[in-house]
Amino acid sequence: MAVGLTAPKHLSAIAGIRLGTASAGFKQTVRPDLVLIEMAAGSTCAAVFTQNAFSAAPVMVAREHLANHAPRYLLINSGNANAGTGKQGYAIAQASCEAVAGQAGCHAGEVLPFSTGVIGEILSIEKLQAAVPQAYANLREDGWLAAANGIMTTDTLAKGISEQCTIDGKTITVTGMTKGSGMIRPNMATMLAYMATDAAVSQPVLDACLRQAVNASFNRITVDGDTSTNDACILMASGAAGNRMIDADSGDAAATLFATVEKVCAFLAQAIIRDGEGATKFMTIDVAGGADDAECQAVAYTIAHSPLVKTAFFASDPNWGRILAAVGRAGLSNLVLNAITIHLDEVCIVRDGGRASDYTEAAGQKVMQQAEITVRVELGRGKASTRVWTCDLSYDYVRINAEYRS
Fold first, then answer.
1. Active-site residue flag, 173
2. Most CB contacts within 10 A, which of 163, 215, 235, 294?
């Protein structure tokens, strides 16, 4: 069960953005597994993709199409990643775009394909082609909830949120959905995420907005340290709200939009961790006092990726020595041990190079029993800081991934 997270009951429609779902049969269930998103003519679109060298075929095709065309459609299938499939997989990804183009009457280059699921298996283009007409027929502006369910794999619930702000006296809406539960370690934005706004935004500003928001959210999460082959995060802007175009000179308007998109991204990123495979604890790792952001991240991710730390949290065991050891092996040079402090929430566990003199096992145990815990590390060597979100490592994580293909 997800930690402190429930499925959305409503997601606000975005004028100019329509979503449709269908069941192509890629999964073992009849749950919808094909999602089509349509952007009105004149919309802008920005995207970031995985940095995994074995990028999936749809990622390759999407990058190429985005570089040469203004996208009109996004096609997403779950149940099969179409990754590690070589030239055949690439041809299938191209054919999937052609299937949408034939249905919608657009150029195949105006379609971006996305896939998620098992790596190394050939995607059935016949099943996809048969389901595209139904997804197209189901296009509707209020299709966000159905789409959020259609992109899930090992997720236990759909993940989505809507936020609003005011720009030029116009109410601006941002709605987003994501999927992700395992194989989560950002090297861009690890998972699939789709967000849209009705604001009018120039493409360069939209791209800057997405990258800034991703860096503060999706690039600060980890479940298991694995970066997927298929990761993608998309931000669409239909311009239907009627505000003045937000461009490089828009100042406050751009800042307002950036803040709203960041809020959506932060919620979606945390939702992935809260629904991490087998997760029972949601942990925030705050590292401050670093010489620069890179060394703060090194410490934060060493803690967040440590199987010993993560299993201790699963057991609610205040085995603080595992956290201390993670800080020490993060690769920082010339650490002044007496300057470092480590807290579990407000309980200081390490001070002056060892266990804090006022620390008690009972105090540590009380914090570790909580479902949500913050680990705070002060390095005492600068002004940089960072925040990372992660979860514990439970029996169910092993079971889910051991049985993933069965």
1. no
2. 235
